[in-house]
Amino acid sequence: MAQMTLIQAVTNALDLELARDKNVLVFGEDVGHNGGVFRVTEGLQKKYGVNRVFDTPLAESGIGGLATGLAIQGFRPVAEIQFFGFVFETMDQIAGQASRMRYRTNGRYHCPIVYRAPYGGGIKAPELHSDNLEGLFAQSPGMKVVIPSNPYDAKGLLISAIRDDDPVLFLEHMKLHRSFRQEVPDEAYTVPLGVANVVREGKDVTVVAYGAMVQTALKAADEWAKSAGIQAEVIDLRTISPLDTETIVKSVKKTHRAVVVQEAQKSAGIAAEVVAQINENALYHLEAPVIRIAPPDTVFAFPMIEDEWIPDVNTVKHGLETVMSL
Amino acid sequence: MSTVLETKPASFVQVLSPDGSVVDRDLLPNLSDDQLRQLMYRMVFTRTWDQRAVKLTRQGRLGFYAPVSGQEASMLASEFATNEEDFILPGYRDIPQCVFHGWPMYQAFLYSRGHQHGGEVPEGVNILPPQIIIGAQIVQASGVAMAFKLKGERRVALTYTGDGGSSQGDFYEGVNFAGAFKLPAVFIVQNNQFAISVPVRLQTAAETLAQKAVAAGIPGIQVDGMDALAVYAVTKEAVDRARAGEGPTLIETVTFRYGPHTMSGDDPTRYRTKDLESEWEIRDPLVRFRKYLESKNLWTESDENQAIEDGKNAVTEALKQADSHPKMSVPHLIDSMFAELPAKLKAQKEEYLASREVK
Ligand SMILES: Cc1ncc(C[n+]2csc(CCOP(=O)(O)OP(=O)(O)O)c2C)c(N)n1
């Protein structure tokens, strides 16, 4: 066991999978010699050679297409999009091509690709670096979308993603990159895709979150417990598509109230889907409407005000107060 | 002057050698003494400003910043060949061209800090704010150029990208569109040898980046990007051709960035040697142009000091102005999404304000 940051846990997962399966390839802009702009692939090219860990020319559509082509020839590409805001450049290769391959060839070909990308606010990156675009991919049938909230899950989820036979988008929240360490086992292990995790037990209200919002929700829940004596149950979705409806519904049936927190702008997002699932599966167990805590429907705020735009502990507490008072 | 594009299509255009002597008299651009001095002034001013900006970024007083030292000739001599009404579509590093094209420096600073007002380009200043998405500006340049053509305006769209940027699909599309529609556009690829850590030889098997023009059927030319006069001569001709309705040109300026890729954690020692850096410093654009001007008695130490002084003062002034500008706000961000705020966003604005009241 070692104490690892989320970045170290991801590096470790890549290292183990490169060693385990010669079909795993890691590539993207600056990931080879330089080890990635966040050093996630540090040392991997040296260890596995330039044929397995390599720099590509600067072209995201090229990276996406390369991954698709390699995948249908039996490789397991782990392609990095340097920052998630650049994903529009390869939207077709991911959402239009790879995620439909199995369907359009009736199972003859499939795309075991992992697209890794840093995303998320809080580090004051320039525009189109931090945007929460996960909703676009949750709306792409055939894709799985994974967002770890801590180093332990990051390693286990990434290993599952690499071993999965379908395309998986794996998003690494930049605020969590190095913000805390956790005990992470040295050996390979998996955390299943599509399974949420109850990270704080409580009986009064359910808080559903993912990514960096899990930490925010936990803090808000702890503070709220101290000041109001109310126990919130916090669920970390871990995979936002496919959604683990069962875990959410089970919790809501117990607490009868829920808030959903997301860092992405409010409308037509993951939180809306969670609310819909609760309505469809647990409406009569509710004592109050389920509310979403999310930024307004704008583009991701420029660095100067991103901290105000992103939901913080206070906005989550405000949301909790609202559902408890209804 | 014989035209560079006709006489030198496949060569590396150079007017001044690194020691400041003229290597090709035929290509000496037609610039007055005052213009020559002005161009030198801009390069010295910009180097000073760049060094200050690097420090300010380290101190947290600026946000995002991509250093420009080494690329002054490539940036400033090309902009110098445009008219005020020509339109520039810059990449994130191309701040100096924008400022000399009229963008107030304090707005460049606000842009760096991530303030919306930074990108609020003043009326009459013909630029877009710096583009983050590599390649996006290239395709847009063709749109701007087509607009000029359709409106019958004798204006030119000038856009910049890097060696890495020339690998993007958008790059090929933009250049090809410009050729297909014979648009008044000039595409400048500043080949500073690295795209963050990736050397240009890993970007492409093409011998030059200028030759990417061949497939688009437009002129492409490679120029010494450390030579202000060569950059000016080539860009001037390309801009004149475009203005005259003769179509687009692709220019590769061969240059080098001395500093890190940006101030956000890049460490150049991981991917390039000190020797390589020294090799490029010998070709320094300021040293070379200064020697040339000195040989013509057009530049003195006091001119140099004045430009440095002015550069420092301009930064200090711009910083003050940026500091005193009202802070950006979330409600304002909401207001700026549409011409008319939809009811849903209005409600969200209220909701936002209410949620911030508990503290
Ligand atoms: C579409 C897109 N992909 C990736 C990036 C991240 N990125 C920023 S600068 C850069 C390298 C650019 O190199 P080059 O085009 O040579 O220009 P330079 O920075 O050297 O001026 C990369 C990969 C980006 N901003 N946009």
Quick overview:
The complex is a heterodimer of chains A (326) and B (359). Chain A has 326 residues and is an alpha/beta fold.
Write structural notes for this entry.
The complex is a heterodimer of chains A (326) and B (359). By secondary structure, chain A is of the alpha/beta class. Helix content of chain A is 37%, strand content 18%. Chain A has helices at 6-20, 44-48, 60-72, 91-97, 101-104, 134-138, 151-163, 213-228, 245-255, 270-282, 306-309, 313-325, and strands at 2-4, 24-28, 53-55, 76-80, 114-119, 144-146, 168-173, 182-184, 197-200, 205-209, 232-236, 239-241, 258-261, 291-293. In chain A, strand 2 (24-28), helix 2 (44-48) and strand 3 (53-55) form a beta-alpha-beta unit. Chain A starts with a strand and ends with a helix. In chain B, strand 7, helix 10 (228-243) and strand 8 form a beta-alpha-beta unit. Chain B folds into 2 domains: 12-327, Thiamin diphosphate (ThDP)-binding fold, Pyr/PP domains (Rossmann fold, 3-Layer(aba) Sandwich); 329-359, no CATH class. The model of chain B has no long low-confidence stretch (mean pLDDT 96). Chain B has 359 residues and is an alpha/beta fold. The interface between A and B is large, with 44 and 48 residues. The structure holds thiamine diphosphate (TPP). Thiamine diphosphate sits between chains B (93, 132-134, 161-165, 190, 192, 194-196, 261) and A (29, 58, 60, 82, 86, 89).
Write the layout of secondary structure elements.
The complex is a heterodimer of chains A (326) and B (359).
Chain A: E1 2-4, H1 6-20, E2 24-28, H2 44-48, E3 53-55, H3 60-72, E4 76-80, H4 91-97, H5 101-104, E5 114-119, H6 134-138, E6 144-146, H7 151-163, E7 168-173, E8 182-184, E9 197-200, E10 205-209, H8 213-228, E11 232-236, E12 239-241, H9 245-255, E13 258-261, H10 270-282, E14 291-293, H11 306-309, H12 313-325
Parallel strand pairs in A: 2-3, 2-4, 4-5, 5-7, 6-7, 10-11, 10-13, 13-14
Antiparallel strand pairs in A: 1-8, 6-12, 9-11
Helix pairs in contact in A: 1-7, 3-4, 8-12, 9-10
Chain B: H1 4-7, E1 12-13, H2 33-58, H3 72-80, E2 87-89, H4 95-100, H5 105-113, H6 136-151, E3 157-162, H7 169-180, E4 185-191, E5 194-195, E6 198-199, H8 200-203, H9 212-216, E7 220-224, H10 228-243, E8 249-254, H11 274-281, H12 285-295, H13 301-324, H14 330-335, H15 343-355
Parallel strand pairs in B: 1-7, 2-3, 3-4, 4-8, 7-8
Antiparallel strand pairs in B: 5-6
The structure holds thiamine diphosphate (TPP).
